[in-house]
Design brief:
single chain; Rossmann fold; 19% strand
């Protein structure tokens, strides 16, 4: 009787399952509520090589995209969900945006979500017409030429011309080769520090220099 009471393994597992379901329900409330589009409403998944931008960086890139797209412009975010979320916080502004993303958690954003696997760069819905976006923002998930080259196929298919690429500084040569973009002075930051130096690249006169 003097021993500390302990739960059986079966009871403990049931309790853990209950807490997990409770957390998931709370998460769904976040999606459905006022903060649906706030940064961090969906947690990073490092196994998918996801690293969210800092709030300041996401805001800066979203502002640049809106200016580059122009009034009534169309913006595509490829593997750049934190920029998409910042753009959606500006609900009511005169532009439209969609997100191409491998992570199906972002399907909570409805029709603007398009499942995207860079391994199949042109496997896109029929309603995504070629050269139908005023600017494409892309952040390829891996620092490899193969990933950049395949993502570049998607970018070139979708954009009318303007490209905003975010990737490692080590990819500068490949970025110029596959997309004709040049490194900007602006240095993007992430909510968690990355080991690799990260940079932005554009192919038009931008406000990031």
């Amino acid at each position: 009787d003097d021993d500390i009471p302990q739960l059986s393994s079966h009871t403990l597992a049931a309790l853990q399952e209950f807490y997990l379901e409770q957390q998931q329900r709370e998460g769904m409330k976040t999606f459905q509520g006022f903060n649906q589009y706030s940064i961090g409403s969906i947690e990073e998944d490092w196994q998918l090589s996801q690293f969210w931008y800092s709030d300041e960086t996401a805001s800066c890139l979203a502002k640049e995209a809106v200016l580059a797209a122009g009034k009534g412009g169309r913006i595509a975010c490829i593997s750049a969900p934190s920029v998409y979320q910042k753009l959606k916080e500006q609900d009511g502004e005169d532009f439209s945006v969609c997100i191409l993303e491998y992570d199906r958690r972002f399907s909570v954003y409805g029709e603007e979500f398009i499942f995207y696997d860079y391994n199949h760069p042109l496997d896109l819905p029929e309603n995504l017409l070629p050269h139908s976006f005023d600017i494409v923002i892309a952040d390829p998930p891996y620092l490899s030429e193969e990933c950049l080259q395949k993502t570049a196929e998607t970018i070139k298919y979708l954009t009318k011309g303007k490209i905003l690429l975010c990737t490692g500084a080590v990819m500068e040569e490949q970025a110029a080769k596959h997309l004709g973009v040049k490194m900007c002075k602006f240095i993007p930051k992430h909510s968690r520090n990355l080991a690799n130096e990260f940079r932005c690249y554009v192919n038009y006169p931008s406000g990031l220099d």
